[in-house]
Amino acid sequence: RDGRRTESPNAGRPMAAMAGLLGLRLEKAGHYALGDALREPVAHDITRAWRIVCWSAYLWVGLTAALLAAAANAHG
Questions:
Q1: Angle 12-22/44-75 helices, nearest 10 degrees?
Q2: Are the C-beta atoms of 44 and 52 separated by less than 8 Å?
Q3: Can you give the pLDDT at residue 8?
Q4: CA neighbor of 25 nearest in space, from 51, 2, 53, 55
Q5: Neighbour-count burial for 7-29, b at 16+ CB within 10 Å, e otherwise
Q6: Whole-angstrom Cα distance, residue 6 to residue 42?
Q7: What global pTM score does this model have?
Q8: φ and ψ of 34, to 5 deg
Q9: pLDDT tens-digit profile of 27-37?
């Protein structure tokens, strides 16, 4: 919903997704606001955001490895 609110075509979507996952409003005053202000942000949200990023990366690596293994088995 908010992914196109930033000037950058690449930054808005991941920032809006993280705002939604954390239940926060991420804002650059005078430029954009992403997400809903369901609660006030706290320091622990930084840890939560890093966990989401890390788990996403692990899932992509695992999926890529599985697809490459499947492709290698299909051809040989």
A1: 120
A2: no
A3: 87
A4: 2
A5: eeeeebeebbbbbbebebbbeee
A6: 23
A7: 0.76
A8: -120, 135
A9: 999 999 999 98
